[in-house]
Write a structure and sequence with these properties.
- The complex is a heterodimer of chains A (325) and B (325).
- In chain A, 78% of the residues lie in helices and 1% in strands.
- By secondary structure, chain A is mainly α.
- In chain A, helix 3 packs across helix 13.
- Chain B has 14 helices and four strands.
- The chains are: A mainly alpha (325), B mainly alpha (325).
- Chain A binds chain B through residues 70, 72, 116, 120-123, 125-127, 129-134, 136-138, 140-141, 145, 246, 249, 252-253, 256, 261-263, 291, 293-297, 299-301, 303-304, 307-308, 310-311, 314, and chain B through 112, 116, 118-120, 122-124, 126-135, 137-138, 141-142, 242, 246, 249-250, 253, 259-260, 291-299, 301-302, 305-306, 309.
């Protein structure tokens, strides 16, 4: 009995995702008991649909944060990719081309962020703040601050359609999660990103090209944001110029709740669960008729709790290592 | 060491040059720029950010980060408004209550930074940023508050010798900050903590106490800025100060302060603050749209910070050369 218990404890300590998953289940059950309509399949599908965009962006930014970086330009990149795809579709291009161009644009803006951070040596927070100003300013100039509506049905199906009763964005989210999971756990790049975040000097000394890794994290983040932008445009069926303002902190919150920290920690699955948790809380509060502003209170507390749990976990890990040794 | 070869212009000279250049361009663009009224307006419109910059410089110098200042501005602005308008309080106790709340937030931030020494202070303060903003919106369910006693507006509309008191207030605070950094033990120890926290600790610097004090000071200053903002607007907005932390960080980094701590000066912060404020004001006077203003600001941000780094590198190279000789 004692041995089994300690094994569970070990599992809890090693896999940060499990504690978030438990929290998510508890939150779902609590809302479900208090308001049975919360656990309706209709509502759960709606909840998933709402969570998709934040979750896809959170999975992208988790790589940047793991590598000790920061990206506050994701809101602006989302706006550009959504606007670009809508603009291209309205100018008569077929949907696949428009989507590919938008994804490329997202990755390109990530590349730009990465180059400014590494080659000009400007810290991530400030560099991405500056690029978000520039991107938004240029975006409004290009789109003329117009609403882009009447997107073709062949495109909006990506955001609004369902396959086997599950919304298509959820499939996209699963694909992105799977890709990010593989990248993070089964490739050299994934390990190198964690190495750069965990101990930069050690990473340099073991031959990791830190600049290249940093640039790549920004490109991954930009690409995921591009995917989110396309899904956003398709889901809304229209794009307005103030898309995604303030979105960056929602995404960063989800990532932090998912257990990411600036020390090489963080996993795509954790970010996904964090985003799901946030959107479950948002949805549940609305259904129960509680002030939507409570959501921020809960989010803030969750970030701080996730942080405390992380600290406690690393202490327990250290204690166990001491015991084993 | 030979004096001639080590001589490089201090960083502040470059910043002053940039500031004068921007100012000169603005004069050419619109002769109204160089009137007393406009120059005063530049300070009046950005006064709150300037005040926050001072204490934010302290926090960043010791390797910390306070993302929650924008939310504290909102919280205290709302709190002072609600206490006066809804509870009929006299302005003085209302202001004191608001500042007390700010100090509590600062103590929370500082306490958590001390309690979780291995966590990035950015995460901690992002948590309290989200939390405090939500509390601030909950106060009035998102509605603005107004209807204050007349005496409250004296705070930001009284003049001495034709100059608004607020202008003196900002300069005195900045000078005080400069004095604190250069002439007091605690100010000097901020540099020590930012450069090498462990080293500072072993040299007898009370690291934890100083951290706590600085976070409280930062929140207090943000609270004061919130009170001034509400007084100037004659209305308390729940979204007030939404982006102040970013504006302050941008001004500080333009001023040559290392965002990782340990290096920087109040003079630089002052100049960085004026570069951003003058740019904003001048571009608006020249009739540049707010979209293009954003692009300009972003470009100036990147350029100035790059120039700072370039200048630093050159200075280091010169030092090396003289050492070799």
């Amino acid at each position: 009995m004692k041995r089994r218990l300690s094994r569970y404890r070990l599992l809890l300590i090693q896999r940060e995702e499990i504690s978030i998953a438990i929290t998510l289940v508890v939150v779902l059950l609590v809302f479900g008991v208090m308001e049975p309509s919360f656990l309706d399949s209709v509502n759960l599908v709606r909840l998933l649909r709402q969570a998709c965009i934040t979750a896809i962006m959170a999975i992208g930014i988790v790589f940047v944060i793991s590598a000790n970086g920061m990206d506050v330009s994701v809101g602006a990149i989302l706006a550009v990719c959504a606007t670009l795809s809508a603009q291209l579709l309205l100018s008569g291009l077929p949907a696949p081309t428009a989507i590919l161009v938008s994804l490329a644009a997202g990755a390109f803006m990530g590349l730009l962020n990465g180059l400014i951070v590494t080659k000009l040596g400007i810290k991530e927070l400030i560099a991405t703040l500056a690029t978000s100003y520039i991107i938004r300013g240029l975006l409004l100039r290009i789109s003329g601050a117009k609403w882009l509506t009447n997107l073709p049905r062949s495109f909006t199906v990506i955001g609004q359609g369902s396959f086997l009763g599950i919304p298509i964005p959820v499939y996209i989210l699963l694909a992105v999660t799977a890709g990010a999971y593989l990248l993070s756990n089964y490739t050299a790049l994934g390990k190198q990103i964690k190495a750069v975040g965990g101990n930069r000097e050690a990473a340099i000394l073991s031959g990791v090209n830190v600049d290249r890794i940093k640039i790549l994290t920004f490109v991954i983040c930009g690409f995921c944001t591009g995917v989110a932008g396309v899904v956003y445009a398709a889901r809304m069926g229209s794009v307005q110029s103030n898309t995604g303002i303030g979105m960056e902190f929602e995404v960063i919150s989800a990532t932090l709740i998912g257990g990411a920290s600036f020390n090489g920690d963080g996993s795509p699955v954790g970010a996904l669960l964090g985003a799901l948790l946030l959107s479950a809380i948002k949805n549940g509060l609305v259904i129960m008729g509680i002030s939507p502003f409570m959501e921020g209170v809960v989010t803030g507390l969750l970030i701080l709790v996730a942080l405390a749990v992380n600290v406690a976990r690393s202490r327990m890990e250290n204690a166990m290592e001491v015991q084993d040794g | 060491m030979d004096k001639k070869t080590t001589r490089t212009l201090p960083r502040e000279c470059y910043l002053l040059l940039i500031l004068l250049l921007i100012g000169f361009t603005m004069c050419l663009g619109n002769p109204k720029f160089l009137t007393f009224g406009n120059l005063q307006n530049i300070i009046l419109n950005n006064f709150e950010i300037g005040m926050i910059c001072v204490t934010m410089t302290f926090v960043i110098l010791m390797g910390g980060m306070d993302m929650s200042v924008g939310s504290v501005v909102g919280l205290c602005g709302m709190l002072v408004g609600v206490l006066m308008a809804n509870c009929g309080m006299h302005p003085v106790p209302a202001i004191l209550c608001a500042l007390l709340a700010a100090a509590a937030v600062g103590a929370l931030n500082g306490g958590m930074v001390i309690a979780f020494p291995n966590s990035n202070p950015m995460i901690i303060t992002i948590g309290s940023m989200v939390l405090i903003r939500a509390v601030c919106r909950l106060l009035t369910e998102g509605w603005p508050v107004n209807g204050f006693p007349l005496s409250f507006s004296y705070l930001s509309y009284s003049t001495v010798a034709g100059v608004n008191c607020v202008v003196f207030c900002l300069f005195i605070t900045m000078l005080g900050g400069q004095w604190f950094l250069q002439r007091t033990v605690m100010g000097m120890s901020l540099y020590a903590i930012g450069n090498n926290e462990r080293g500072a600790y072993f040299a007898g610097v009370r690291v934890r106490r100083i951290k706590l004090i600085m976070y409280i000071l930062s929140a207090l200053m943000a609270g004061l800025a919130g009170v001034f903002l509400t007084s100037r607007m004659q209305t308390g907005y729940p979204d007030a100060g939404d982006n102040y932390h970013m504006d302050a960080i941008a001004a500080i980094v333009i001023g040559g302060t290392d965002i990782a701590g340990g290096e920087g000066s109040m003079m630089g912060t002052l100049l960085g603050f004026f570069i951003i404020s003058v740019l904003k004001n001048g571009l608006a006077l020249m009739g540049v749209s707010s979209l293009d203003q954003m692009v300009f600001t972003g470009v100036v941000l990147i350029f100035t910070i790059w120039l700072n780094r370039w200048q630093k590198k050159r200075h280091q190279q010169k030092m090396q050369k003289t050492q070799m000789q």
